[in-house]
Specification:
The chain is mostly helical. The chain has twelve helices and no strands.
């Protein structure tokens, strides 16, 4: 159903505008970044700082907004913004992305920092009203991302030590991984149990505590000078906990259901990236390889899988992956693997970055081709949303 106040289907529920915006920005931002790497004229605002910040604090929050605005409504039974309020939230996000290239810097920082607090505010209302204490941790995660973004902008503006910018980015990366781990732990076992007869995925409180606590501890550790041995053990123990956690969900049972196996495959990037991080503590790998395993691998894979599933479910369609979906997801894995490989194979760096960028753009273009019309049209079952 179209939203009665706006008359636009795309403003009927949060996933619609924000999944569209995230996918369009995923294509546009990496295209601009590839052009900048090749020295294209007129892209003075598109540098490494822009690339790292915009993928983490631009692209990722758009996907988060689409998911949380939709999921919180289901979790609490209370409304989240639609129509004009949703449009204003989307316009705030768009304004920050445009200003990130055009400036001025102070206005960029102000507008950019406002988006996640605005998102947290609108989802806090139904969570608190429904006494949905289970999800209070999500609000804490969002607020910690706000703090990291503020530190980043202050550091890049010269108001505080410049090195705090990189620490803020690393902190935010681990906090987003924590958020995705929480969501993955909620949806993957449930979806598996519901879709596969005889499946009995389970969880273990102790393992979950170590897995989640480890990510939180690693995030906090980014602000301190932690001895390499301690950091290595923290990464290693956390990686093992995530492997055990994933194993309890019986991921092998999902092999005949692409929309399902995308979730454990995506989740497997988390322990893999933690293993790479453990190696990086002793300089066996460059840290940039770890960052791209966590971002292009774990984060983006999980977000793509959830975008596909929730786009189908919330437009009233059968939860079944198409050939386009499978192709988009597999190509995204090629993008992630190529980008990680580029950091450890310097002789092939330029070629692998180009392959990674092209695969990324193709993957999200396929998503837009398949899901764009769904997100712009009413649900096929006539229900609102």
């Amino acid at each position: 159903m179209s939203d009665k106040r706006s008359g636009l289907t795309v403003l009927g529920l949060g996933f619609r505008p924000f999944y569209l915006l995230a996918a369009v920005y995923a294509v546009a931002a990496i295209f601009l970044w590839l052009l900048a790497l090749r020295g294209a004229a007129g892209l003075t605002g598109v540098g490494l700082a822009w690339h790292t910040h915009e993928m983490l604090f631009g692209f990722v929050p758009a996907v988060m907004a689409g998911f949380l605005l939709t999921a919180v409504r289901n979790w609490t039974g209370l409304p989240t913004p639609t129509g004009v309020p949703l449009a204003l939230l989307a316009l705030l996000w768009i304004a920050a992305r445009v200003m990130a290239i055009t400036g001025p810097s102070l206005l960029v920082a102000t507008v950019d920092v406002l988006f996640i607090p605005a998102l947290a505010t609108v989802i806090a209302r139904p969570i608190i009203r429904s006494r949905n204490r289970r999800n209070y941790k999500l609000l804490a995660i969002l607020l910690s991302l706000v703090a990291a973004n503020i530190v980043y902008h202050c550091a890049t503006a010269g108001m505080i030590a410049a090195e705090l910018a990189s620490q803020a980015l690393l902190f935010a990366i681990h906090i987003v991984l924590l958020l995705l781990s929480i969501i993955g732990g909620r949806v993957t076992p449930v979806f598996t149990a519901n879709a596969i007869p005889g499946a009995k995925p389970r969880s273990h409180k102790g393992i979950d505590t170590i897995a989640m606590g480890g990510l939180l501890a690693i995030a906090v550790a980014t602000w301190f000078a932690v001895p390499p041995v301690t950091l290595f053990l923290l990464y290693a123990i956390t990686a093992i906990a995530h492997v055990l956690r994933l194993g309890l969900w019986q991921p092998w049972l999902t092999r005949r259901n692409p929309l399902l196996w995308m979730l454990p495959v995506s989740y497997s990037w988390i322990p893999l990236s933690l293993v790479l991080a453990a190696l990086a503590t002793f300089d066996f790998l460059p840290m940039v390889a770890v960052i791209h395993a966590m971002t292009a691998g774990a984060m983006t894979s999980m977000m793509m899988a959830m975008m596909m599933r929730s786009s189908l479910g919330h437009t009233g369609r059968i939860l079944q992956a198409s050939r386009i979906d499978i192709a988009a997801y597999v190509i995204l894995q090629i993008a992630a693997i190529s980008r990680v490989a580029a950091t450890v194979l310097p002789s092939s760096y330029t070629m692998l970055v180009a392959v990674s960028g092209a695969a990324w753009i193709l993957s999200f273009s396929l998503y837009l081709v398949h899901y764009g019309p769904m997100l712009l049209r009413p649900r096929i079952d006539g229900r609102p949303g």
